[in-house]
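Let's practice the habit of predicting before peeking. Look at the sequence and jot down your guess about where helices and strands might fall. Then scroll down.
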Amino acid sequence: MTVPQPRPRRRKPLDAGPFAPEIGSFRLHLAAEGKAAKTVRTYTEAVAWFAAAHLIPRTSCAGWEQVSGHDVQRWLVHPLTRYSDAYASNQFRALQQFFRWLAEEEQLPDPMTRLRAPKVSEKLVPVFTSEELSALAKTCQGRGFAQRRDTAIIAVLTATGIRAGELAGIRYDPRDSRRSDVDLWRREITVRGKGGRPRVVRIGHEAARALDRYLRVRARHAQAYRPQLWLGVSNRGR
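Done guessing? Here is the structure:
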């Protein structure tokens, strides 16, 4: 499988100037609603980018009350032509949330009321073939710590399809089930996705056996007391 290399991105201008106070208030609003820190950052950066890269240099708007739907449409041409349609759609929805909040907060008309989000075309996600997975598993053969850990990682990923961030966030505590996300007897693992929401995924017998083998060598690791399931080699943490 050939994995496409990401295209380097330029640093976004985020100095919103006279538009910044409302963005700060929007940040507080999102935090008060319990939004995840990543969501708060994504939404507020999208609004700041819109102000810094479009409103200030390309329009005569001096405040949010002067922004029109046409301003938003003209701006969206930029992410649509330079980024993926999914990314442009996320930028649209961040602005949509901001203007919806601003309309309620300041009793202003919402310039995005009649605008529609960009259409997102479905893209096939590249996956490993069975031959590639077999070759990858062969490179992890052995009884050492690294080999058993990597074999378990591949087995869990193959069995569940969880995200890399979810995999890295799995906790393990053999003495306290409340602090452990792994239940080998039930063949269940609790993972946390976006916003820290927990969900349970099941693994098969082969994945459970690979994980059990790793846990046995993990118990002899100098960093076995750490809460992370996956530990580094040479007595280092994750």
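How did you do? The chain has a mean pLDDT of 90.
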